[in-house]
Amino acid sequence: SSSSSSSAEVAMPGGYVALDPSTPEAQQAVDCAMIQINEMSNSIYLAAARSVVQMHSQVVNGINFRMDLEVGDTECLKNDATVTNLTECAFGSDATFSVVRITINMPPAQDSCTVLVPPAPVAAPTTAPAATAADTTTTPQALLGGYQPIDASTQVVQEVAACAAQQLSSASNSIYRLLLSSVEQAEQQVVAGLNYRLTLL
Predict the structure, then answer these.
(1) What is the pLDDT of residue 69?
(2) Which of 4, 21, 56, 197 is the most buried (most CB within 10 A)?
(3) Positions in the chain whose pLDDT score sits under 70
(4) Residue by residue, what is the 3-state secondary structure of the chain?
(5) What is the spatial distance between Cα 193 and Cα 174, in angstroms, rounded to a whole number?
(6) Would the CA dihedral through 169, 182, 31, 125 be positive or negative?
(7) Contact status, residue 30 vs residue 49, Cβ threshold 8 Å
(8) Residue 19: what pLDDT?
(9) Burial 67-80 (b: 16+ CB within 10 A, else e)
(10) pTM listed for this prediction
């Protein structure tokens, strides 16, 4: 009926949507993410995820997974060839844990994944001080409709850059896949949504 169709919640194409971390799909993504995290880590021990704080997925060419994982070092050494699964590794009694965010892409019908946004600590939320009258009068206002420089190191810019790199790779005639090295410059334009103008390396 028209009433049921109008009330149904439909995910925006290309947007990130919340994903239940207990699903097999999510668990596979976590396992793949931990492989990447361990390859990038300088620790002699294998790290494992103690919990999934949150996870979102995005349907693209395959699926992008953005996840916050609570990770810590286990007692298993990286060079121990007998270890075949992180579930075999126990956390040490003195293990410390931190929450990191990583974004990966898993191609269709494959168990492998590539890192779109490298793992980085998730900053604890901070409370911004209340604005004073002086603050509101002296803060410069962005020109409506114009591009404004923004911090290229922020999470949202890194995700936009990863998406842009995917689009460039898909549009390229090269047999090789393009990989994002760094974001040299980023600008933002407020429209019906946000436009981003990036300089990628």
Answers:
(1) 95
(2) 21
(3) 1-14, 123-148, 166-180, 188-201
(4) CHHHHHHCCCCCCCCCEECCCCCHHHHHHHHHHHHHHHHHCCCCEEEEEEEEEEEEEEEECEEEEEEEEEEEEEEEECCCCCCCCHHHCCECCCCCEEEEEEEEEECCCCCCCEEEEEEEECCCCCCCCCCCHHHHHHCCCCCCCCEEECCCCCHHHHHHHHHHHHHHHHHCCCCCCCCCCCEEEEEEEEECEEEEEEEEC
(5) 32
(6) negative
(7) yes
(8) 93
(9) bbbebebbebeeee
(10) 0.58
Q: Do 68 and 90 meet the contact criterion of CB atoms below 8 Å apart?
A: no
pLDDT at residue 201, rounded to an integer = 67
Give CA separation, 173 vs 61, 139, 163, 169, 181, in Å: 16, 46, 18, 8, 20
Q: For position 112, what pLDDT does the model report?
A: 86
Residue identified by tokens 């931990």 is: 34
Is there a contact between 29 and 104 (Cβ–Cβ < 8 Å)?
yes
